[in-house]
């Protein structure tokens, strides 16, 4: 600590002036904790010394300087017993949103103080434009979420690992169906009209009933699968196991419906392009429809396993 720091901490303005007269550059020196003379004056609650420092041109280099803990003079004011320090708080150069190493702004530091003093200083800081630190708000929110998750995990376990694995599998299937059906919607069976005219760029098989059925069922499959993907996205923000299980069950139903719609779209699309070969078209339809009883038997078997 320099002699100027000691004079500032005692509020001896005359001594400070004399020291600065003999050593004009000593105002920029800091002590072992990184505090400048404005830090020291604020921490010692010496209003006369603070006013003297703020009257000099070099105070601009001190007013937002941080010590080793990242605290500016305004942070120290928030920690002190000073009831008011308007010339510092309302100074146009002071950074009222500065963060220290604990991610706290001056307004954040007021939280543990007594109610009366906190109310007075908070009013003064807010009127000067000070705000709570968003980094601190997010950190507190994340800490609360982590604590809640840990408490629930200690009691009953938040989300079993196998539930996450099942959810990831469902999500992959839903995303694949959405991708395939989206692609099929623009690479339609039969292709597009290339000849110039009013129908150029239109699907060739537009007037066929089988093609129209393909377009409808393909769209249904894409909508169901994208809804399932969205439901998985929403579910990822939940922490309640019961809610997660319910949402995943809903997503699974949507995926099954999307698979059914995709098979129907495949069958109708194949029939549309194979209409001139009725035997082959019927064979494709029979084989495609054979998947429905297979789906039913698999689902029934799964339900029976749950009942055991």
TrEMBL record:
SMART domains: ANK. It is found in: Membrane. Gene3D superfamilies: Ankyrin repeat-containing domain. It comes from the Eukaryota. One of its GO terms (cellular component) is plasma membrane. It is a multi-pass membrane protein. The chain crosses the membrane at residues 171-189, 209-231, 251-274, 280-299. Residues 163-273 form the PGG domain. The keyword Membrane applies. ANK repeats lie at residues 1-20. This is PGG domain-containing protein. It comes from Nyssa sinensis.
């Amino acid at each position: 600590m320099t002699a100027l720091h000691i004079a500032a901490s005692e509020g001896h303005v005359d001594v400070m002036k004399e020291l600065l007269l003999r050593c004009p550059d000593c105002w920029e020196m800091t002590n072992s904790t990184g505090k400048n003379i404005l830090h020291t004056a604020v921490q010692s609650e010496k209003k006369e010394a603070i006013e003297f420092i703020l009257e000099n041109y070099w105070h601009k280099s001190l007013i937002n300087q941080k010590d080793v803990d990242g605290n500016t003079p305004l942070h120290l004011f928030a920690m002190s017993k000073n009831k008011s320090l308007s010339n510092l708080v309302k100074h146009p150069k002071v950074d009222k949103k500065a963060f220290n190493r604990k991610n706290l702004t001056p307004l954040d530091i007021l939280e543990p103080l007594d109610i009366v003093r906190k109310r007075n200083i908070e009013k003064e800081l807010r009127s000067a434009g000070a705000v709570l630190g968003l980094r601190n708000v997010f950190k507190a929110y994340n800490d609360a979420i982590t604590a809640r998750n840990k408490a629930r995990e200690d009691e009953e376990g938040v989300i079993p690992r196998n539930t996450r694995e099942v959810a990831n599998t469902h999500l992959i299937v839903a995303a694949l169906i959405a991708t395939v059906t989206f692609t099929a919607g623009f690479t339609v069976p039969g292709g597009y009209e290339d000849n110039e005219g009013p129908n150029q760029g239109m699907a060739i098989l537009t007037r066929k009933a089988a093609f129209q059925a393909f377009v409808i069922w393909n769209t249904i499959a894409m909508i169901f699968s994208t809804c399932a993907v969205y439901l998985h996205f929403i579910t990822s923000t939940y922490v309640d196991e019961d809610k997660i299980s319910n949402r995943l069950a809903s997503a699974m139903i949507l995926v099954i419906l999307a698979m059914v719609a995709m098979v129907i779209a495949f069958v109708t699309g194949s029939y549309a392009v194979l209409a001139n070969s009725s035997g082959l078209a019927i064979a494709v339809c029979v084989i495609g429809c054979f998947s429905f009883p297979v789906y039913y038997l698999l689902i029934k078997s799964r339900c029976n396993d749950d009942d055991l």
